[in-house]
TrEMBL record:
Keyword terms, alphabetized: Signal
Signal sequence coordinates: 1-27
Domain SH3b: 110-179
InterPro entries to which the protein is assigned, alphabetical: SH3-like_bac-type
Protein known as: SH3b domain-containing protein
Species lineage: Bacteria, Bacillati, Chloroflexota, Candidatus Thermofontia, Candidatus Thermofonsia Clade 1
PROSITE patterns cross-referenced by the UniProt entry: SH3B (PS51781)
Domain of life according to the entry: Bacteria
């Protein structure tokens, strides 16, 4: 049985044994959506003749809790945008899911990047309700000087404009930055989305001279990061490597033991798979951050494999659990709530174009990431044709 199906069965069993008392909004469990291809009117009622409360502009993000109805021959979602609650009914191809924790590739402190896609506001502080200092046009070069901070459904970077020296905060709504000078240390690429200002640790420099001998023949370092995954007792160096000849990624972690860098974790991805995400987050109420390693298998269909690593004082750095495999899958991390989606097809739907998604929601319960919800929803970018 497919592991993601097993997880959905566990959620059902848990609901039977320990009722969750879900409402039509699935107990308030949030999903983050974004307007990608145009503006969206937010109506007071599910009717185009009702008052418009606000306009969700292209690039804006908002919250959907799964409430939806059919009215006036269209499908409507009940959403929250800033302080407003109301109904939207955009055409297909306008809105879709967004991940507040996702960042433009290679963005990190000290990185230099170019603004692409569209002009971006520079804010006095992180958060959309703070004063706007300036509007930066496409092509503006910036340098990251602090961050990241996740506020108002976005990850924010503090930047300095190269041409003027002006400083402020920009929201990262992927992909708006093209990094031209990524953060590198001792010639190695530093892994992005590790928030090293919080989770980074010094004292790892001596691994540089021995690192090539710690890898397999044919492997090269994709990126590395020195972390306090053990709570800050000593640096744990995470290394993502790849063997191009075998088309295979590997993930390792090393700790300094009795003066020697010792492997404490090693895992190989399937051949011809690619790392889709490697990031470090505080998802629990303790000193040990969680490392997320998602790998994508691109065969006849894109399959997302998930792996979670945490440090256990009794057993060391271990793969705490895996959420399984998700067909055409993707992930959304909103606060400490981890959600995985995979394609759900009606009979005779083509492989390219599923009308629905299966949603698997997990939360930390103090011991493990426990499943709290499974359901099937219409896919937002096909809101008018995906009637579920």
């Amino acid at each position: 049985m497919h592991l993601s199906k097993v997880l959905s069965l566990l959620v059902v069993i848990a609901a039977l044994c320990f009722p969750l008392h879900l409402t039509s909004a699935q107990a308030g469990i949030e999903m983050v959506l974004q307007a990608y291809n145009g503006d969206v009117a937010l109506y007071e009622r599910a009717s185009s003749s009702s008052a418009i409360l606000a306009v969700i502009r292209k690039g804006d993000r908002f919250i959907w809790r799964a409430d939806r109805i059919d009215a006036e021959g269209r499908q409507w979602f009940f959403v929250q945008f800033d302080k407003f609650f109301g109904w939207i009914s955009p055409d297909d191809g306008v809105i879709d899911f967004a991940d507040p924790s996702a960042i433009s590739p290679l963005m990190d402190r000290s990185a230099v990047a170019i603004i692409e896609d569209s002009p971006r506001n520079l804010y006095a502080a992180p958060g959309r309700f703070n004063p706007v200092i300036a509007s930066l046009p496409v092509g503006t070069a910036i340098k990251v000087i602090d961050a990241p901070v996740t506020i108002d459904l976005y990850t924010w970077w503090k930047v300095r404009v190269n041409s003027s020296g002006m400083e402020g905060w920009i929201a990262d709504s992927v992909p708006i930055f093209r990094v031209t000078e990524p953060l590198r240390v001792y010639g190695y690429q530093v892994c992005d989305n590790f928030n090293l200002a919080v989770f980074g640790m010094t004292g790892w420099d001596s691994i540089v001279s021995v690192l090539p001998s710690l890898l397999d023949v044919g492997e090269t370092v994709v990126c590395l990061a020195s972390t306090k995954m053990d709570g800050g007792l000593s640096p744990i160096v995470v290394v993502l490597a790849r063997n191009e000849a075998r088309a295979q990624d590997s993930l390792r972690a090393f700790a300094l033991r009795s003066g020697r860098w010792t492997p404490i974790f090693a895992r190989y991805a399937d051949a011809f798979a690619r790392t889709d995400r490697l990031s470090l987050h505080n998802l629990s109420d303790d000193a040990f951050p969680t490392l997320i390693w998602n790998v994508r298998l691109d065969g006849t269909g894109s399959v997302l494999q998930n792996n979670l690593l945490r440090f256990n004082p009794a057993t060391g750095l271990v793969e705490s659990q895996s959420m399984g495999e998700f067909y055409k899958g993707f992930m959304q991390l909103n606060g400490r709530q981890m959600t995985f989606f995979q394609a759900n097809y009606l009979p005779d739907e083509p492989n390219c174009c599923p009308s629905g998604v299966e949603r698997y929601v997990f939360e930390w319960n103090g011991v493990t990431f426990a499943p709290v919800l499974y359901d099937v929803l219409p896919i937002p970018y096909a809101i008018q044709t995906a009637r579920r």
